[in-house]
Amino acid sequence: MATAGRPPKEFTEEQIKRIDELAEAQCKDFTIAEELGVEIELFKRHFAQRTQRIRAIGKNRVMVAQYHGCLVNGTGGMSERVWWGKQHLEQSDKQAIEHDVTDELGDLLREINGTRILPTD
What we know:
It contains 5 helices and no strands. By secondary structure, the protein is mainly alpha-helical. It has one domain.
C-alpha cells in the first residue's frame, strides 16, 4: 500500500500530477478515478488520504486568494470569489427575514403551542 508521500507503482508520474491537480480543484475521488479509467476502490485504496490532503491545500489557497483579492482588488472579480467560497468553503450570504405578527396571530400560535394564558372570568 502506498503512503501519501510515495505514489504506487501502478500509476505514472503524469497521472499522479493530474490526480493532485484535480484534487486541488476539489474534484471528487469518483470523478478522478473515472477520468483515469480505474476502479474507484483501487483509486481510494491508493489515493484517499492524498486527495483529502491536497483538497485541503486547494481550499486554503482559495481562501488566501479571496483574502488578498478583497484587500488588493476591491470588488474586481468578486462574484467569482463569492461563488467559489459558497461552493467549497461553506460560505453563504446572511439573510434576515422579518415577520410582522398581529396580536391575533400571536395569540393563536401561543394557543396552538399551549403557552397562551387564557383570561379567567
